[in-house]
Amino acid sequence: MELFLHYSLIPSLFIILVLSFLQRREHRKQRDDTSHLLGNRFGIIIPLDFVGTFSNRWSYGIAFGATANKVMFLFSEGYQPLHIPQWAQAFVLLIGGMEVGLSHFPFFACLSSEFRLVSSILGFSYSLIWFAVTILYIIQCPHGQFLGKYETVMFYWPSLLCLAFLLGRFLHMFVKSLRVHLGWELQMEEKPFLEVHQAEHVKRLLRKAPLQETKKSWFQTRVYEWDPCFQFPSRMIGTTVLAFICLYLFIVIEFCMFMYVRDELDVFEGELENYIASMNQTGTLTPVILQVKELMNVSKGVWLVTILPASLTCVSYLFHILACYRKHMKRLWAGNKHFLPLKFHHPSSSKSVVAIARYSGWQIAYILWGYLIIHVVQSLCGLMIMYSLVLPVVHNQGLEMLQGLGIGTLTISIVLGLMTLQVWIATSFFLQPKMSTADKQKPLALNNRKAFHNFNYFLFFYNVLLGLGACLSRLLISCILGTWLIARIDRTIMQNGYEGADMGFSAWIGMLYVDHYHTNPVLVSFCNILITGHRERRLQQAIKYWCLNQSAGPRVSARSRTRWLLLQTLVNNPKLVMLRKSRPGHSSREFTQILLMGSES
């Protein structure tokens, strides 16, 4: 498969040249060199619009899914075509990423090309080649050394499923474009500048009376509520699909490594048993060896059991990140930036552009590494539970375990009780009464100051010892939350003021700002109005007798129309009257009265 990856560049470059030849350049500069011989051919083709593509989203997502095996190949740093020094590994991985992108470029280019008939034929042929080679590889090498039978099938069935979907998609494109070419169907309209969901969002904002809220189901209330006025861009769908497949492959690879390590531990355990048998269980190392064997057995069981909760945690993170993307975008559309740290209210434009290129790859890497870290943390928690609760019962030490658990629980309860008692004493004796019965709490005004100073003095020495436990609990909670949320690129795990050091969170914020500036429904609607008006004016100028069409209705001067629109705006927004710039010699109120009189006339 690695060899075929290199040879697939030949048909890939051929398809790119064909589509580039069909793509015409809109702006061509006349020069004196031989480039004028190309005419306006060989335009630049794009795989997909990473910012504003909302159509054909799942096809792009499945095309991303077809690259999952190659992405995991790069992630494991298995791409080593040349023997180079260690310091140059970054360049090798860059070349590998470029090669993988170039080999899968035709999938995206054929999906996004305007020449549907030719691109569907090329895309179907290229997908069929990849599908056939993958099937041939599975038939030749179906088994593996870790999982045994059908190991290769477990690795490659997601890519096969994605390739099969692309085959069906390109076949559907071919049939539809052929019917259009033969005149059996009408040509589809070109991609609209303003998407339907964006227009619906603007209509919702301009609607005066709110819609009647329907009764929401349990899923809509607790899990997720679908919004018809919002759609995820193709980049987010493709990133999520690829992250799901890569997470599955990563779990399979991890399980293979677990099987290998388990077999090695079984061999080591057999050697330990032989040693114990040779010493007739009377050696000085026999108790230590038994504890080591118990640790290995418990570790294997805990690691195997925690695969499911760790994987479910990362899967839930992928869905939660999509929900947070929608929530954050809606807040930015409304002009609300309070959910962002202060230093991210005005991010760098260049860093934001780079962030949208980084986000998809970083999100997948964060999910994979996050799964591994979460799995390790959950395994450590499982070991603690086994050694503190389960194994004492197995070794007939349940009473001692319960005694130690009770003493520990009582100690923590007393410490928490003393802390709660301090708060109750402060509330009851050291704060002045409420100023009103409607107040929720007492005002921050000291009462009984002499008793308060004695209270502080005698608790000073105790709080020194209490602060040690609070410091350790702070460290423990920070470690647990940091490792638990490491896969969440939408949430920083840094302290307040150090968010800029979190490169993943910075990429998330930059990506949000790029989408906000380029896909804001209000901005896109405004630009659509300008473009539509410009096209209408050009159309009117192209018609020879367009004045005859205009004479059918009453003629309205541009000045009167502008004044009427201004009047309507001021009536609907009275506060704008005080903010208007006044004419020389007139106040804003006088000018508004003149405007009203002129409009009435």
From TrEMBL:
GO biological process: vitamin A import into cell
Cell compartments where the protein resides: Cell membrane
Key words, A-Z: Cell membrane, Membrane, Receptor, Transmembrane, Transmembrane helix, Transport
InterPro entries recorded: STRA6-like (IPR026612)
Topology in membrane: Multi-pass membrane protein
The keyword Repressor belongs to this UniProt entry's keyword annotation: no
Transmembrane segments: 6-22, 58-75, 87-109, 121-139, 154-171, 241-261, 302-325, 366-390, 410-431, 459-486
Molecular function, one GO term: retinol transmembrane transporter activity
One GO CC term on file: plasma membrane
Taxonomic superkingdom: Eukaryota
Protein name: Stimulated by retinoic acid gene 6 protein-like isoform X2
Protein's organism: Panthera pardus
